[in-house]
Write a structure and sequence with these properties.
The chain is an alpha+beta fold. It has eleven helices and 15 strands. It has three domains: 82 residues, Alpha-Beta Complex (DNA Primase, Chain A), CATH 3.90.580.10; 67 residues; 100 residues, 3-Layer(aba) Sandwich (Dna Topoisomerase Vi A Subunit, Chain: A, domain 2), CATH 3.40.1360.10.
Length: 284
């Protein structure tokens, strides 16, 4: 079924911090409630651009203006509202951004239980994404959690900081701390992917590749420039980031920073990412 087009109401819930990361802007300091950036609108040495995580709104102290994520994309890309919605919709893929529920200052995501993946809704979701259940169970867990006393559950990938990257059919969540996930297989090479479904799709599509290479799941493109220590010592660094503007930018930067980095996105040419290519295959 085709995804509905992005509406203004839905777009306002797209996480500002993740959207800025997709556009190549990273915070210079960050807390649970807010993040400060050098203004994306001009060159500056002191961060004057504030994002309230609780309100999901931004304010540029240098210009005295602010707004929501639609206003940000319109100003940054010199786009109309319609063009901003198309950008945020990202070709109908509802998992491109971390769309958070509205969190009040007292809100906190709390893990309640971690199980083997078994819930029918999650198994159906895996089937839709063309990920075999056995494979998913080897890397993911079924994580039950609460936000403001409301209960949720999702597929969870543990990250290296002890937090969880959480995905279900409807939402993307993260249980702090946010970090990458380094899957070590004693490989001489390492492969960089953006998210858990890219990692699982690589194993489905190229099992021999994944057996011979360690995998680093970024969990956020914002970490692409912060993983130097995890890349040291590898013979080759294979880059399998998204085929979009943000993925292009991060790939260029990694290629420039690492002489042994190789852009391998030809593996899914014509598709946005590995999972989109996998889902595009008909069962033979």
């Amino acid at each position: 079924m085709k995804e509905k087009r992005m509406t203004c109401e839905r777009a306002r819930n797209v996480c500002l911090v993740e959207t800025l990361a997709k556009l190549g802007h990273l915070p210079s300091k960050e807390s649970e409630k807010e993040a400060w950036f050098p203004s994306p609108f001009r060159s500056e040495t002191q961060a004057s651009f504030k994002v309230s995580k609780t309100l999901n709104r931004w304010y540029d102290h240098g210009e005295g203006i602010g707004g929501n994520v639609i206003d940000l994309v319109c100003k940054l890309k010199k786009a109309t509202v319609k063009e901003a919605l198309e950008f945020l919709n990202d070709n109908g893929n509802p998992f491109s951004f971390h769309r958070q529920p509205f969190l009040r200052p007292s809100s906190k995501l709390e893990i309640r239980n971690v199980l083997s993946v078994r819930h029918p809704a999650l198994l159906e979701y895996l089937s839709k994404r063309r990920i075999p259940t056995t494979l998913a169970k080897a890397y993911l867990k079924q994580v039950h959690f609460t936000i403001n006393s409301k209960s949720y559950f999702a597929l969870g990938l543990r990250n290296d900081g002890g937090g969880w990257e959480l995905r279900n059919k409807f939402q993307k969540y993260c249980c702090s701390p946010k970090a990458t996930t380094h899957i070590k297989k004693n490989g001489s090479n390492i492969t960089l992917v953006e998210g858990m479904f890219d990692m699982l799709s690589l194993i489905v599509e190229k099992p021999e590749w994944s057996e011979q290479s360690d995998i680093l799941v970024l969990n956020s493109l914002a970490f692409a420039s912060k993983v130097q220590n995890k890349l040291n010592g590898y013979g080759s660094i294979y880059l399998l980031l998204d085929n979009d503007a943000a993925g292009d930018k991060a790939t260029r930067e990694l290629l420039n920073a690492h002489p042994n980095a190789i852009d391998k996105r030809s593996l899914y040419q014509g598709y946005k990412d590995l999972n989109e290519k996998l889902m595009g295959h008909e069962t033979k």
